[in-house]
Each structure stands twice: as C-alpha cells, then as structure tokens.
Specification:
The protein has 328 residues and is an alpha/beta fold.
Length: 328
C-alpha cells in the first residue's frame, strides 16, 4: 500500500534573518511524506514569494500528485515531466529519493555512486547597518567562509562590506545582493567588493535587468541566483556570469539539481550550492549535491531555534554527512 501526505511545518528563527527583501523570524516549510509498505521517504521545500510561491499554492500543487503516486504512476522520472521546477517538485523529488534508498536498503549516496565527505559551509551575515554587521562579524570571524547580505535601499553597501572585512580579515567573503543593486550603484559596489577581496558576488542586479553585467569589467566573480533555476536558458547566461547558485527549491529537486551542475560544468561555470531557510531535512539532499561545488551555503539550520530530530551535524562551519534517520 502507498500513502502520500503533505504538511505545513514552522521552525522559529533565532532572533531574525534579514536580506534585501525583508526580515524573517520563522521558517515556513512544506513537508512531503511518502510510504510504500513499511518504507517511508520524506522531503522538504521552502516556498519563496519572489517566485510567486505560497505555502497554500505549493501544498495544492503537491497534493495534485497524490493520486498518481498512490496508483503507482509517479516515480522520479515521471515527476520531472509532471511538474515544473520549483519548491513543490523539490519536496516530492527528495521524498522519492529517500523512499528509493529505504526500499533498496542502500543510501542515496550509494545509489548516486558518491562518497560523502564533510563540506565547509558559508555562514551568513544578515543585512543591517554597517556597525550592526560589524558586530555580527566579530562573533563569526573565526569561520573560514562568510556570506554577506548586501543590497540595502540606501548607499551604505560599500561601508557594510568594508566593516565586515575589517572584522574578519582572514575569512573568504562572498556577497549576496539579492537583486538589490541598480545599474547606477553597480560600479561603486563592485569596486568596494573588489577592494575588500570578495571572492564572489551573487545576483547583483534584478534577473529581469542584468544586461549591464555584459559590459562591466569582471573584477569579482559574478554568480547567477534568481537568474537561473533549471538547465533551461543556462547557456544564455555565460556572457554575464561566471558561476551559478544551484538550489534544490529552484531546480525542483535533487534530480534536476545534479543535472544542472553537470550542465554548468560543461559551460565552464563555477557552482555554488545554496539553500533557502529550511530545516536539516532540506539540507540533507542539498549536502549530496554540494559534494562537487566550489562554494557551499547550507547554513540555514544554524539560524533555527528548533530543527528536525535528528538534525544535520555542524562542527563550526564543517557539515557532516546526514544520518539515514534524517534522510537518504
């Protein structure tokens, strides 16, 4: 017998988490649980309003696949054709991977031919006033990789990145503007990042208005985030970006994320493996895709006041492979 369940789960965030689009105090996720006999698979997704996703809409799109699954007509291959990329497909795809591993008595890593090794994740410094970000950086200065949220509505981003660098002189810095810059501020902000020795900048301009990147001297590696979801249109981005941020919630699951990474490598693009603010259940499949990434950003559980049981294991910024009791 097969069963299919979808739930809305909420995880409180310690304090708050701020990016250019606003501040959050809770993580709202959708969890899919599929069973086949005694075997259970789970997957999690975080609907993202930037992509016109809501909890209700994602749950409805997932629920629409229940009949096909319970009838035995929905496996991972069929799922790719049945649904577009996005959070809804991600939750189901990851649940099906988990179930497949449980049925086979093998790990997802074994099914993929992977040897899982610990990875070092970025640790995010939320957007705030320069002095606020400086204080947050002091507490995280020991971490080897910091992801700095920029894209403020004012003109303080050069001060913000300078404040972070002054308080973390040894850390590798990556910047995420979350589409918050404009063609008018781009050159100044890029210069400030280059001065601070930033290794990579994510999505400096809106995805719909990033043509200015074509003619800009690339003093810092530019990474597409909102501009890339799946393999469709990837090749068209190479005149503007050197890297892509692969997220399972955008790609629509581990299946497409792995294919997107292959396609990016074929185009000589660097790969960042990122995440939304979700629980360890979302980070576990992302961890598998992160094995070959140039930059890894799966620190979301570190910002949660409560997590799955068992959670992913973090030792500072080092993330250990997930236990099969969590996923995979």
């Amino acid at each position: 017998m097969k069963t299919f369940q979808v739930t809305h789960d909420v995880f409180p965030i310690r304090g708050s988490f701020t990016i250019a689009r606003g501040t959050r105090t809770e993580s709202h996720v959708v969890t899919v649980t599929v069973t086949e006999g005694r075997h259970v698979g789970r997957g999690e997704a975080t609907p993202y309003p930037r992509y016109d996703e809501t909890i209700e809409g994602v749950m409805a799109n997932i629920t629409a696949q229940r009949a096909a699954y319970e009838a035995g007509d929905l496996d991972r291959t069929a799922l790719q054709a049945a649904m577009p990329g996005g959070a809804a497909r991600n939750a189901i795809d990851c649940a099906l991977w988990d179930l497949e591993a449980k049925k086979a008595g093998r790990s997802v890593a074994e099914l993929l031919g992977l040897t899982l090794n610990p990875v070092t994740t970025a640790f995010t410094i939320s957007l705030g006033a320069p002095d606020t970000m400086a204080n947050a950086t002091k507490d995280a200065a020991h971490r080897p990789l910091l992801k700095v949220k920029l894209g403020g509505a004012d003109t303080s981003d050069p001060e913000r990145i300078a404040a972070v660098r002054a308080n973390a002189p040894q850390a590798t810095l990556i910047v995420d503007a979350n589409e918050g810059w404009s063609p008018d501020t781009l050159a100044t902000n890029m210069a400030a990042c280059a001065e601070a020795g930033v290794a990579l900048i994510e999505q400096p301009l809106p995805a719909s208005n990033d043509a200015a990147l074509r003619d800009l001297p690339k003093t810092v590696t530019l990474c597409a985030d909102e501009s890339v979801h799946t393999r469709d249109g990837l090749a068209a981005l190479t005149d503007r970006y050197h890297a892509v941020n692969v997220k399972l919630d955008k790609a629509g699951g581990l299946t497409e994320a792995l294919e997107l990474i292959k396609a990016a490598r074929a185009l000589d693009l660097q790969v960042m493996l990122g995440c939304m603010i979700g629980s360890s259940l979302a980070m576990a499949p992302a961890f598998h895709a992160a094995q070959t990434a140039d930059f890894v950003d799966i620190d979301a559980p570190l910002f949660l006041a409560a997590d799955r049981d068992p959670p992913m294991e973090f030792e500072g910024s080092v993330v250990r492979p997930p236990t099969s009791l969590l996923w995979g």
